[in-house]
Each structure stands twice: as structure tokens, then as C-alpha cells.
Write a structure and sequence with these properties.
InterPro entries: Bet_v_I/MLP, Bet_v_I_allergen, Plant_def-hormone_signal, START-like_dom_sf. Helix content is 24%, strand content 40%. By secondary structure, the chain is α+β, with helices and mostly antiparallel strands.
Length: 162
């Protein structure tokens, strides 16, 4: 069995505190749902965001064959803006290849009104081989896509989220 890692960074034109609050706090998910309309249909959160909290995102069929993303918080450091989670994907080409995967998301301030979202995905495939570069990109870009949707929404609706 081979454990593999892929890391990508994404600049976001939203302050780090705001991206953390909307995309990663798992408190009030109403703004995240608005921001991810067409990508995420529903979010069910069991817990208070601390380790052990389980979030279930029902994905919109327009996003592809994946139907549900279930996430369990392993560690959360709100001050450092670091979230480590275990995931299960139901449906889709990538899910059929994965035995397990864990993400670590770090949100770093990058000047006035901007930040960088860094996503590291550690994964293990059922066949023991690494994912192809194309499938690695699909896996990590699924998470980065959420941050870009939040960015688009917050920029288009200034003042809605404080």
C-alpha cells in the first residue's frame, strides 16, 4: 500500500478570517450553501465543529457523479486557521479509486483583503498505486473549487458576512 500526498495553493480575494468563517467553521452553514449553490445542495452538521464533528454535503448532480462528501473533523485550530479532516466520497470516478483520504486545509493571510488556501490531500488507493496526475488534480481541485465559490459569493455580496 502506498500513501500519497498532493498539495495545492489557491489565492483567494477574501480576508482569511472571512474565508475561515464561511467555508470552514461549520457553524452557520447558510452562507456556505448560498455561495455553493449549484455545487452543494445541502449540508448536515452533527457536532460543534470540534474534533469528531461530522458534516455531510449533498452534492449537486451538475458537479459530476459524486453524490455525497462526508467529513469528520480530526483536528481544528481556529487561531492558526488549520483544519484536518477525514473524508468519504459516495459516487464518482475518484471515490471508486480511493481507500481513504485526509485533507489538511490552512488559510494564511496574504495582505489586505486576501488570503491563500493551502490544501494537502493524503490518500491511499484501493489498488495500492498513486492516482494519475489528472485524478490528483480532480481530487484537490474539488476542495479548492469550494474556496473559489466562496470567494465569488463574498466579493459579489460585500457586507453580507461580517
Amino acid at each position: 500500500m502506498v500513501a500519497c500526498t498532493v498539495t495545492e495553493e489557491c489565492p483567494v480575494a477574501v480576508p482569511a478570517d472571512l474565508l475561515w468563517k464561511v467555508a470552514l467553521s461549520r457553524g452557520d452553514t447558510s452562507t456556505l450553501l448560498k455561495a455553493c449553490a449549484g455545487m452543494v445542495d445541502a449540508i448536515d452538521v452533527e457536532g460543534d465543529g470540534a474534533p469528531g464533528t461530522v458534516s455531510t454535503m449533498t452534492l449537486n448532480p451538475a458537479t459530476g457523479d459524486a453524490k455525497v462528501l462526508k467529513t469528520r473533523v480530526v483536528a481544528r485550530d481556529a487561531a492558526a486557521k488549520v483544519l484536518r479532516s477525514e473524508h468519504e466520497i459516495e459516487g464518482g470516478e475518484i471515490a471508486a479509486l480511493l481507500k481513504s483520504h485526509v485533507t489538511e486545509v490552512t488559510v494564511v493571510p496574504a495582505g489586505e483583503g486576501a488570503c491563500v488556501a493551502k490544501v494537502t490531500v493524503e490518500y491511499e488507493c484501493i489498488n495500492g498505486e498513486p492516482l494519475s496526475p489528472e485524478n490528483q488534480a480532480k481530487l484537490v481541485n474539488g476542495y479548492l473549487g469550494l474556496f473559489k465559490k466562496v470567494e465569488e459569493y463574498v466579493v459579489a455580496h460585500p457586507g453580507e458576512v461580517a
